[in-house]
Amino acid sequence: MAIYLDSSATTAPRPEVIELVTTILKDGWGNPSSLHSWGESSAMILEKARWQVADLLNASCADSIIFTSGGTESDNLAIFGITSQYDSPQHIITSVVEHSAIERPVQFLEKQGWQVTRLPVNREGRVNPEDLKDSLQDNTVLISIIYGQSEVGTIQPIKKLVEISKNYSNALFHTDAVQMVGRFPVDVEDLGVDLLSLSGHKFYSIKGSGALYIKRGVKLNPLLYGGGQENNLRSGTQAIPAIASLGLASVLAQKDLESENVRLRELRDYFIDLMLFHCPYLSLTGDRFHRLPHHVSFLINHPTLEITGRQVVRKLSLKGIGISAGSACSTGKTLPSPILLAMGYSEKEALRGIRFSFDRNTTKQDLDFTCEILKSQFLIGGAEKV
Questions:
Q1: What does the pLDDT look like over 159-217, one tens digit per residue?
Q2: Same domain, yes or no: 76 and 139
Q3: Residue 217 to residue 221: CA distance in whole angstroms
Q4: Which of 15, 24, 59, 208, by CA, is between 20 and 30 Å from 159?
């Protein structure tokens, strides 16, 4: 039996996406910058996908969509595309629970003299909007706050944060929405964000497909210089199969968004209650109510066994169940999750996080079986000591 519960890491491309990519690899391989029929055919595929992604985000202009290789590149383009325009270091605001694709570029800028304010979060991983208001300075040029946190599932009040930033500063607002787009209604016009990152392989496109939404009038410097593709912001011949897959995945996501959102929320809430009832040594991490619809995460607090999240991941994998842990392994040593540490957990506790994330194929029976395995074998008597 194989049960995949790690869709926050990646999803399997939908059959329709695989079919489209296969067709384009065979028949749509032209360079979209070329003027002949092969190029024009690819250019049409490119612009169709741009409109499809724009529609998913309710972006009023398709030219606001710049195609990238994924969330990491989109985040980096947003951060460095803005900050590289300044001759001297300014001030950036972010949070303590950002993805490394934001945190590491910000760390780099910090070493170059940029002033960085990292907003704290509560025990559930949520930012207090008043903290943003209090952190704004005259030289604040960029605010980047993650929309849905990948490890603990907490959704931030982005619309409220944007309102504060616009009312009290001239700073641009970026959000990493990689875990949100395709899973949850995301309307860039309603949110008011200036920049938004997304990644296709999180909602059934192929890897290597991503985009950055850039509000009209917002100017960025490119990371890559060359032929000037993607409105001079992402030079290099566009990867048409990946871009087309993102476009189709966007159409399919939009079609199923309402019903799938309800279904995943029901599964999420069912699994939380199921696990907390049968496995009392688990405690929920992240916000119970402001939470990604497909996401459940726990901390292991077994009364007698010292067990890490990574150990549970390995043991479940042997049973054909795929989940993930927040802790990482470096030079043979397990490191605590920086996200859980930022939320106020101890180093010991931050080694014990586990995450379950669902996709379009997840069933209630999958969750029942997973709970039974955890209850009967791993977290009662079968776990090895650290």
A1: 999 999 999 999 999 999 999 999 999 999 999 999 999 999 999 999 999 999 999 99
A2: yes
A3: 13
A4: 208
